[in-house]
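Final report, closing paragraph on structural work. Over the funding period we assembled a curated collection of sequence-structure pairs, and we close with a single example.
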Amino acid sequence: MFLICAMLCLCAVQRRFDGQVHIFSSYIWFMDESVLFKIASLPFDGNTLSGPRKDYIISKLVEAGLKPVEDAFSNIWVATGSKGRHRLYSSHMDVDMANSDCPLEIRLVQDPKGLCYKGIVDNAVGCYINMLAACKNRSDTRSLYVWTASEEEEPGNPDNWARSAHQVVSTLKRRGIEPEFCVAVDVSYPRLLVQSSSLEDMWDDHAAKELFDFEDITHAYIDGISRPDGYLLADLIRRYMGFPSDRNKGLIRVRDMSGWDEAHVYSKIAPSFAFGPVGFGKYDEPGQLMPRQNVKTAAWFLRHLSHLRCLTYRLR
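Its predicted structure, as stored:
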């Protein structure tokens, strides 16, 4: 039985009309997009733990007045705040090896979906919005922002993935830190047209449009939940931040979809979920397309999640 005590206070930055969230445009904050384009253009190999993407991220965090620390496994850590339990926000820096020979770039294009980023968005976008959240966080709540070195599958050994997340968990246990919750900040797929349990078997023989709903208007998803209190956490956040439950409305939705992401590993120590803006295409292929507005919505969410002042879970 779960006893949940929650008292959440946050700045009113959304209105509801007919059950839908409308974000005030004046509250949409954005870092120079050249930072995103630069991150996307720089490689990082999660197997050799090498590539200029890591050093660039460190340099921009220092430029923003933060104090990033690189651990022995090439993960980058930034700590902010001094009150309450820690909250962990993690995004992986490595590029899927299937795309290692493709031009690493993102460009802004006009599409029927609006202005979109086109290129290799996984996981340059996740690194970018995690940087935005860390740089703009003015909350006094303890937050740990991590950029992990290795999340993608090891070549020739697809069962070995999210290696850095395991290292992060070990580090937290060694330091005696039990996070309040963890968020894996990554890119998201649109609504599935097939059962999630069949996705892996159908992947190689089916086009993206056969697997995913390319008409999905959702901006971002909360998913990758693998323990009961993770669902309770996601539902509380959804309700208190104003996300409607109507599946046909809303910018951000919670869905029951397990993923191959770091949230699964972090669930060993705390309620966890994956979160990210929706993109179209396969993330192990070039030509990925992500509406610019989806990235803005995800950035807004991640920033304001850090301002939920008190979110306490007790398990009995």
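The longest strand covers residues 83-92. Residues 1-29 have pLDDT under 50 and may be disordered. We thank the funder for supporting this effort.
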